[in-house]
Amino acid sequence: xxxxTISLVFLLLTLTxxxxxxxxxxxxxxxxxxxxxxxxRMRRMPSAGDRELCAFVRIEGNxxxxxxxxxxxSLARFGNLHVASIPLRSLSPLSLRPEVSRxxxxxxxxxxxxxxxxxxGGAKAHAGELLPQAFTGRGVVVGVQDIGFDLTHPNFxxxxxxxxxxxxxxxxxxxDTLGSDLYVGAEYTTEEALKTYAHSRDAYIISHGTxxxxxxxxxxxxxxxxGMAPGSDICLVSxxxxxxxxxxxxxxxxxxxxxxxxxxxxxxFDYAKSVGKPCVVSFSEGSMMDFRGDDxxxxxxxxxxxxxxxxxxxxxxxxxxxxxxVVKPVGMESARVALxxxxxxxxxxxxxxxxxxxxxxxxYGPDNARQTYLLRPADIxxxxxxxxxxxxxxxxxxxxITATRYxxxxxxAEEVVEVIVGTDKRMGLDYYAGVDLxxxxxxxxxxxxxxYLVPEDESLGSSAYSIHSPSSAPAVICTGATGYRTQYxxxxxxxxxxxxxxxxxxxxYSSVGPTFDGRVKPDVMAPGTNIISSYSSYYLEACPxxxxxxxxxxxxxxxxxxxxxxxxxxxxxxxxxxAGAIALWLxxxxxxxxxxxxxxxxxxxxxxxxxxxxxxxxxxxxxIDAYKGLLYILGLSDIKEISDHQPAAVRFSLSExxxxxxxxxxxxxxxxxxxxxATSGTEVMSxxxxxxxxxxxxxxxxxxxxxxxxxxxxxxxALTGSTLIRR
Length: 727
Prior knowledge:
Elements: H1 2-20, H2 29-38, E1 52-59, H3 63-69, E2 73-78, E3 81-87, H4 91-95, E4 100-104, E5 110-111, H5 125-128, E6 141-146, E7 166-171, E8 186-188, H6 191-197, H7 208-217, E9 233-238, H8 258-274, E10 279-283, E11 285-288, H9 296-305, E12 310-315, E13 325-328, E14 334-340, E15 345-352, E16 358-364, E17 370-375, H10 377-381, E18 387-394, E19 397-407, E20 415-423, E21 433-438, E22 444-450, E23 452-455, E24 461-462, E25 468-469, E26 477-483, E27 487-489, E28 495-497, E29 505-506, E30 524-527, E31 531-535, H11 537-542, E32 552-558, E33 561-568, H12 571-588, H13 594-604, H14 626-633, E34 651-654, E35 659-663, E36 672-678, E37 683-689, E38 695-699, E39 707-713, E40 721-726
Parallel strand pairs: 6-9, 6-10, 7-9, 10-12, 12-26, 26-30
Antiparallel strand pairs: 1-3, 1-4, 2-3, 5-11, 7-8, 11-25, 13-22, 13-24, 14-21, 14-23, 15-20, 15-22, 16-17, 16-21, 18-19, 19-20, 26-29, 27-28, 31-33, 32-33, 34-35, 35-38, 36-37, 36-39, 39-40
Helix pairs in contact: 7-12, 8-9, 12-14, 13-14
């Protein structure tokens, strides 16, 4: 009886909503489009049926009851902010409820891997070979939300292969949904289940997550290709992005939004909380920022998710070598820009404080055909819902122009016109749109959305405002990429060169700020160019001739399968390197918050160009320094006798009985001074050793248990420096 009553109420609500349409002002652009296509004036989806959207919703009062009336449900809640599942048919009627102030969803994440050339190279030494001896991330959960995981790679055991470090995974795309109470996919919570499942569903078509996880937490197996936190526990979420679209049932496609990604972050943090450990999450995905405020609730949710011992690190993006921002200044009559796309459409936004301008298009088609089109901002307000749509024919080729106008979410005094230009062919050098920004008395700012902007006057364009979301969120630590190694030899013996900077220089593809609301981003940099890490054996098996397999530096056998170490470049790689460094810091202090981590970054980061002011929109506060950060957190930075770097050519190991073994380049046999300091700053031991056969030892067995700083002083600069030992 109760079910019948709810159904009748829902029917009445729906019929009423059809008469009133919807409150589009409460909706993000994707939600608005879906509402119009299902129950609004566009009505393109009459058979939407029970298709669901995963969305952020702000609801006052009893949200569970309200959502249930419309066939929806809350999946997670933070105050009055919910991640909810909503039937598409209910978006319009739900928007009319006074308790609902905002419904938001967005799609379009892509992985942040630079593909300018074949991806090459090897990890910077400090990112893999010189980890602080006392801190490996033990007692910390490293979470990675990504795609393409090989759960069987030996990189995810400890170095002795005695401990399997992946503790849990939620695969959004898993088909093992029988009995699962998750919104999509299934989770795997035991070592047996993880090893039996063996790989995320998409690991045959991509290996991105296998690589990024290795950067953050790989043990290196029997190589030097270690991640930053090789002693950490691992929790994974295999989400879904544009590269996974072929694996998603069309009936479920709207479940896979940013709101679902937020549930992925929550899943990782909830696991870490259940085992009483701090956690850092690496996220090497994103998409362009917008002026619509389509990420407003997403940012609020992220702010609610992070806290002491809960850190999110995300990639800045790989658009730093492209024009993302064009300015036509006051006094210039016009500025001409070409809009080119690798696909069938491109889009951009124009922001200003005046209506006194025009967008004068020249649309190019086959056989040098062309057509002009003049767009005035005032024309858009004459259309229903401030949405203008026109179709033109150029040499028999259709062009579609859609324009909408709205106040900037970040400054209501600024108006934004957003324009999409599309065709039924690929927009390239022959088929493209020329746009003249006209208005002598007004400054016009043009922002890249999709496709590429090519200004006729190069001086008017820059890569500013190219940071991706969600790394643009205040709660997230945004990471850009630096370069060190410029070439490498692949597994075939071929030499490849991929020069994107050396000595910590910013790699030109790394996106730059500011954000659309004027904040400095990125926050920090990390090595991201030519980084060697693990690759999926299942991808290698399914795609042996893929272009990125040419970046493999080594193939090897393990448990009857062929695995690879592969070189990749991008902020996808720098992000897990930074996250792994933060895992070491959380091991030293599990209570660190995002603000605490940023303070460590401010105090200890390396600065490639000292002539710049920091922070800035190219380097943030500089390049993360895991070791200096540890010294700072442990209060050792003020001990003048301790170097703030590790000795490049000394190897350290500590036996169970407290003997510290030091390995030197053979046949080095000169006296070496070894000094030992407690974290209080007190020197507790000083001794001189003479290496024999490249080895020397110091007995620390009489010292109390704890962390000690070991200072090594030698005539060779490469043998001088400090490291940390946990006795």
